[in-house]
Amino acid sequence: MRTVSILGSTGSIGTQALQVIRKNPDLKVLALAAGSGWEEALSQAKEFGARLLALSDEEAAAKAQQAKHSYGLSNLEIAAGASGVQKAASLADVDVVLHAIPGFDGVKPLLSSLEHGKRVAFAGKEALVSAGELVAPYITASPDRFIPVDSEHSAIFQCLQGEFRRDVQEVVLTASGGALRDRTLEEMREVTPEEVLRHPTWKMGKKVTVDSATLFNKTLEVMEAHYLFGLGYDQIKVVLHRQSIVHSMVTFKDGSTKAQLARPDMRLAIAYGLTYPDRVPGTVESLSPYFGTLTFEEPDTARFPSLLLGYRAGRMGGTAPCVLSAADEVLVQEFLARRIGFLDMYEVLSAVMEEYHPRDASCVEVLEQERKWAVAKTMELVSLRRR
């Protein structure tokens, strides 16, 4: 039996994780954490027998506290606010914590899990990108206790099993290209949020789906790979792979390449993260050897320039990745609200980074200060472009 805490239980990754757990009696949920969706979270707590439910929204936590008796959950502990989520991240009896909190809100819970020696199954890419220099020492000290759940990084992690890191020449992250991969720049200028949210392969939340369309998702993943595997940025490549069958590749110094292939289903990486080093039988349907043609293309950085910004911010180091991520969060919200156009996201992101001078990422407080600057600067530039 392996005990689990799921942070972000009502989101896309969290709900898919519960699907995996529902089919695997060897996984037991002890704690759940969510934002404001208290009714769904209470239903999850009842079905899976959670001991603790944390809600970062304190008003939602108060409602859950009042309603828990009507759900037959009189003994369920309700924890409120950021401290409640950190409690769920570090609960004493939990073996593995699935981190699926989007954005910077995941930083403190992640550090709390690591400080308490928890095995982490990690899906909150913005938190790692923002606080990578604080998190990396924990990964270096215990690499088998930090299991990536992003499909690309899970693939790299699997390809590296049984290998010496010193033998790695480069890793190749594959990108589907998102909903706009065949659109011209002129066509991109007028696309709507509805068009951008129609991802050709993956079922994901809105923010990550928009990031997939701009390739900013891959921008984050490049920086993630740097922190997860200790690689230089010149060792991390990106290719467009429309079929989403090859999830990533690792090339070694002897010239050989290993790749992980599977159907595009996030439950596979989630299950591996929760049960590593074991595998859960029947998580997804096996891939037929007759899967057809696989294609790989260089990404068009003229149409998707945010990819270059990621390499630039990563090489700048310090607080630069945190600021880049914060600016993107604002821009995605503004685009989804129809206040800016699709291409405005690239242009404002570039302008923000042109004005930024990074600091040492010495502590969470410094990161929070730099995020405030990034949000204010981004909103200032957005105000000049609003439709």
Structure description:
With 387 residues, the protein is α/β, with parallel strands linked by helices. The chain has helices at residues 12-22, 38-48, 58-67, 81-89, 107-115, 125-130, 132-141, 151-159, 185-188, 193-196, 206-214, 216-229, 266-275, 306-316, 320-336, 342-355, 364-383; strands spanning 2-7, 27-34, 52-55, 77-80, 96-99, 119-122, 146-148, 168-175, 236-240, 246-252, 257-261. Strand 1 (2-7), helix 1 (12-22) and strand 2 (27-34) form a beta-alpha-beta unit. The radius of gyration is 20 Å and the shape is globular. The termini are far apart.
* Tally of alpha and pi helices: 17
Give me the side-by-side strand order of the main sheet: 4-3-2-1-5-6-7
> Nearest-angstrom radius of gyration?
20 Å
Q: What does the overall shape look like?
A: globular
Number of strands: 11
Largest sheet: 7 strands, parallel
- Class per helix and strand makeup: alpha/beta
Strand content is 5-15%
State the low-pLDDT regions, or none. Answer: none
What is the helix content? 40-55%
Oligomer: single chain
Q: Span from first to last CA? A: 54 Å
Report mean pLDDT, rounded to a whole number.
96
Q: Write the element-wise H/E pattern from the N-terminal end onward.
A: EHEHEHEHEHEHHEHEHHHHEEEHHHHH
